Amino acid sequence: MRIIKTLKQLESAWNELREEILSRPLFPDNSEKEKVERKKRCENSIAEFARTYFPEYVPAEFSRFHGEWEKIRRIENEPVLLEAFRGSGKSTFFTLLDPVHEIAYGKRNFMIFSSYNEEKSALFTGRILLELFYNPRLKNDFGDFFPLGKRPGIKRFSVTVPGLGGKKAGVRAISVGQDPRGFVHGPNRPDYVRMDDIQNRQRARSGKFVRSTIDWIMQDLVPALAENYSAVIVATPLNTRCVVSTLEKGTDEINPVKTYKYPAEERGKPTWKEAFPASRLARLKRTIGSAAYAQEYQLIPVALGERIFRDECIRGYAPEELAGVRFSCVLSWTDPSVKHEEKHCYKATVCAGITAEGVIYVLRARIRKESVARMIDGMYQIYNMPSPDGGTRVQSPMYMYFEDNGGQAILGEVLAAKREMEGYSIPYRAETNSIHKDTRIEGTLSAPVENGVIRFLKTDPDQKELIDQLLQFPDGEYKDGPDALEGVVRKLLEYARRRKAGLPKSGYPREAARLLEGYR
């Protein structure tokens, strides 16, 4: 079925959509026994219901998270926020398949569908109406949902549930902000609410709109619902202060809404590999950019007016620039991520040099999900790193710091084994950080990045990952790259301050290292 974005498009395409629905073939076995069996199989499964009566809506195998949605749709007596990536099928599941299922089995009395305006809301009720009116498979097994000759309206209609003695269910589209008090269908107050597209990008930036929408949900809508109601808000967060983000975090006036989040990737693996394999996700990220990908597919909201690292501040350099650069000091920092709770995180090493003028160049980065042994191999490679422009070898790090976060014993054993294998040891130093990671990253890096003091080789894949993690900070899933960058920048700045204070210095890196050891 074509993508319909406005009520006018729906109305103009009505006849064409009707023909598409009517063209669905009936079942090969249409005996009464098989009808009963089909209805029984589908009664407690939206997935089976979709495959049976809406086969074109399920071109790929359902994901694990679709099975979890089956449980979420049954939650009652509290609003639920469901965040899922674009293309995951959340709107089809919660505003079409689930409501048609509930109507067909007579499980709800009065349904409300709401978007940021009534026209958008009517798209949901219009799609439901189309299926109830024309779906030949539904009518074959359940019967007619409307009396012969009746022409219900798209925004508001009443359905007669077949086989239940004249039971009726009301369906109504309303806008966010429309007063729901007094809404009844016969003796019934609304017992089923689905909210989707409750904000657009422009409205999500308005504090007034955000406050009024949350007040409407909590003070007007929820109190107007019947006992044992089901209310699901289907959404993707747009920014850190939008309606969705505020509902998720809560405010001084309201508690956080129970929230379920389904990004396109978890721990670097696709969550719906049948429809969105890793290759497709990588292509999408390249096409729309890392910031948009993080928001649309990883559910990381854009920081509204408070983004710490912005794209326009990430300054790059060309490899050939290094030919004329002399570094006062080159260091590296490694975030080893060896704790049990960090086993799915990146291991990150960042090597950078600072000039006499205070400019910091990120020379090499290695930000990967790998073993400790491979990480240490990478540290040795960085110690012996070639120039990015293919010229002479870049000055080796004076010290290679790593964060001692509880795994020093493991690292010590692997480093010792590597030293025996290579015949020499890299100049590593262990340090313990007592300040929270987020505080350190923001405090150390925000000003240098914003002022263009730190420069990146944007063509390097590992530095691209580092930049992506910076742009997603602090809401991103991973912070290992920024953590390693913070460590090396902090150490470089400490070195620069010591030099300005007149402490011993030397033009020879190894001699400088020995001289400075007494001042550590």
3D structure, described in words:
By secondary structure, the chain is an alpha/beta fold. The chain has two domains: 7-297, Rossmann fold; 311-517, Nucleotidyltransferase, domain 5. It contains 19 helices and 16 strands. The chain has helices spanning 7-12, 14-22, 32-42, 46-53, 64-72, 90-104, 118-134, 136-142, 201-204, 207-221, 243-249, 278-288, 290-297, 372-383, 408-422, 437-450, 461-472, 480-500, 509-517, and strands spanning 79-84, 110-115, 156-160, 168-175, 192-196, 230-235, 258-262, 265-266, 269-270, 315-316, 327-335, 347-355, 360-368, 399-403, 428-431, 454-456. The strands form three sheets. Strands 3-4-2-5-6-1-7 form a seven-stranded mixed sheet, with helices on both faces. A hairpin with a 2-residue loop joins strand 8 and strand 9. The longest helix is centred in the last third of the chain and has 21 residues, at 480-500. Mean pLDDT is 88; it is low at 503-520.
